[in-house]
């Protein structure tokens, strides 16, 4: 409806727009699915480049029972895309690629420590990833 040259209201059959912004704590705990829709992990945390504020990687966890035997692997954020139907992130990465990927951290479980330059290089080499910012 137009009034004084302004569009005030218009009936529409379009769906409510998708909101592109999400809080980090809502991403953490979200499932990661392969192309077939099988869950291959869960996002534990986002790894953010300090200066730009861009998310570079996610820490994906899998395995374990009651907190024992959980494995952490690091996956490039740009390899994930949100799937509204699954209410999770879908990736072309296979379950095997995730399991074989290096972890951003040394060790598993709660004994996580920040990486050194060698580990950063291993991570970038594994994913054929160009440096997108300093760690």
| Major sheet: arrangement of strands | 6-5-4-3-8-7
SSE succession = EEHEEEEEEHH
Low-confidence stretches: none
Integer average pLDDT = 78
Domain PRC-barrel: 22-86
Pfam families: PRC
InterPro entries: PRC-brl_dom, PRC_barrel-like_sf
Protein name: PRC-barrel domain-containing protein
Q: Can you give a write-up of this model?
A:
Residues 22-86 form the PRC-barrel domain. InterPro entries: PRC-brl_dom (IPR027275), PRC_barrel-like_sf (IPR011033). This is PRC-barrel domain-containing protein. With 135 residues, the chain is an alpha+beta fold. Helix content is 15%, strand content 29%. It contains 3 helices and 8 strands, in the order ββαββββββαα. The termini are far apart. It has a single domain (22-124), classed as SH3 type barrels. The protein is globular and about 40 Å long. The strands form 2 sheets. The protein has a 6-stranded mixed β-sheet. A two-stranded antiparallel sheet has the order 1-2. The mean pLDDT is 78. 16% of the residues are buried. The longest helix is centred in the last third of the chain and has 10 residues, at 117-126.
What's the topology here?
Elements: E1 2-3, E2 6-7, H1 24-27, E3 31-33, E4 39-48, E5 55-62, E6 71-76, E7 80-83, E8 88-91, H2 95-100, H3 117-126
Parallel strand pairs: 3-8
Antiparallel strand pairs: 1-2, 3-4, 4-5, 5-6, 7-8
Pfam families: PRC
Domain PRC-barrel: 22-86
Organism: Microvirga ossetica
């Amino acid at each position: 409806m137009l009034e004084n040259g302004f569009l005030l209201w218009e009936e529409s059959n379009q769906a409510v727009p998708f909101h592109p912004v999400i809080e980090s704590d809502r991403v953490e705990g979200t499932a990661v699915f392969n192309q077939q829709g099988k869950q291959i992990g869960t996002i534990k945390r986002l790894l953010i480049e300090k200066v730009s504020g861009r998310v570079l990687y996610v820490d994906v966890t899998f395995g374990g029972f009651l907190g024992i035997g959980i494995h952490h692997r690091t996956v490039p954020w740009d390899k994930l895309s949100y799937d509204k139907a699954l209410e999770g992130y879908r990736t072309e990465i296979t379950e095997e690629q995730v399991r074989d990927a290096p972890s951003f951290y040394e060790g598993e479980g709660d004994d996580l420590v920040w990486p050194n330059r060698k580990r950063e290089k291993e991570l970038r080499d594994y994913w054929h990833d160009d440096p997108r910012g300093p760690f």
